[in-house]
Amino acid sequence: MNLRRLILDGRARLDPATLRESSAATREILLDQPWVRMAGLVACYWSIGTEPSTHGLVLALWKHGATVILPVQLPDGDLDWAVYDGPDSLTPGPSGIMEPVDTRRGVDAIRTAALILVPALAVDRTTGVRLGRGRGCYDRALARVGPNVPTVALLHEGELLDGVPAEPHDQRVRFAALPSGIAQPATR
Length: 188
Hints:
Elements: H1 3-12, H2 16-31, H3 34-37, E1 41-43, H4 55-63, E2 67-73, E3 79-83, E4 90-92, E5 98-100, E6 115-119, E7 122-124, E8 130-131, H5 137-142, E9 151-154, E10 160-161, E11 175-178, E12 181-183
Parallel strand pairs: 1-2, 1-6, 6-9, 7-10, 9-11
Antiparallel strand pairs: 2-3, 4-5, 7-8, 11-12
């Protein structure tokens, strides 16, 4: 069984209460970080299914004055970006994922973010290699980001691993946020 399937199967076994508690803990840990609170422009994502929920985090960042941009998936699999302007500013996209209705800012909008929060199935605790769902959307987006911008993958406990397979195009993250805390891989 491949690693993606193994993690997705594990997530499917998490009960709703555990998912809520895990997401709330991760949100609070992130909001306690000065570099999160001070970020004026945050690139995030609107979580789906058993991903660590970002809904409360996006709302909290927005209410605290950050400009939050969310992805809009393009037909070629790349990510465009648009501003989140509250819960009523979202509509289902072509694949059912909620997307902002604001004017699109282009694929390079992520370059201007002071903080980038991305989905992941796992992160390698040593190298920071991020395992996504295999479509490469976030790898393309993260390739546009400077090396000093905090890139953070949101994970459930047990998804920070010793050894994540990597392809040449895979992008690393600087941090992993889990309900138990923030992890920073040893090397990049």
